[in-house]
Design brief:
Blueprint lengths: L4 H4 L2 H8 L23 H36 L4 H24 L8 H28 L5 H27 L12
């Protein structure tokens, strides 16, 4: 059995063979140079930011619940001093918040590194100091010291310190674009 290869070639190649003209080689395509990522359209950025705020709110809300439960248990249940109760409650909430931010709200960002953990706790510590100072001012200077008043003072202090925390967590602790494999433990 013989096979005529000229019949299986496309028409242009067959004409080139019949005319003794070498076929034109196909152009060599080189890979395009690496370009910077295309900017994200504005609606997508707004949507991504809204999701980030919502996740921060879920984790922060659970942290607020922990903060209030521990605070009220210490202050009203065990009759601890108000500043001791607020600081301990904030520290316990800080620990639960780290887990929520790391594994839920910002899990798509930087990997768990010593630097990230240290930054979180240093900046959270600053947040605890802010929250405690605001609570002290409301509790003592504004006389918000009953069961209801102490919770209002705690809520105000948490609200103001949370704005600070949101900004520093998203800016320095759980950064976009950090290498995911670097420093993973």
């Amino acid at each position: 059995m013989t096979v005529n290869l000229a019949e299986q070639r496309p028409q242009a190649a067959r004409a080139a063979v019949e005319a003794d003209v070498p076929p034109v080689p196909a152009p060599v395509l080189e890979p395009a140079p690496a370009l910077a990522p295309a900017p994200v359209p504005r609606p997508a950025r707004v949507r991504r930011f809204a999701v980030e705020v919502a996740k921060f709110g879920v984790v922060g809300g659970s942290g607020v619940a922990v903060n209030f439960l521990v605070f009220n248990f210490l202050l009203h249940g065990l009759a601890r001093p108000p500043m001791t109760a607020t600081v301990l409650a904030s520290v316990v909430a800080m620990g639960t918040n780290y887990l929520g931010f790391r594994f839920f709200a910002y899990r798509d960002r930087a990997s768990r590194t010593g630097r990230q953990i240290a930054l979180f706790f240093v900046l959270s510590g600053i947040g605890v100091v802010m929250e405690s100072a605001l609570f002290y001012a409301a509790y003592h200077a504004l006389a918000m010291n009953g069961p209801f008043g102490s919770n209002v003072a705690k809520a105000l202090s948490i609200g103001l310190a949370s704005a600070f925390r949101f900004l520093v967590y998203r800016t320095w602790v759980f950064q976009h674009g950090a290498r995911h494999g670097a420093g993973t433990r």
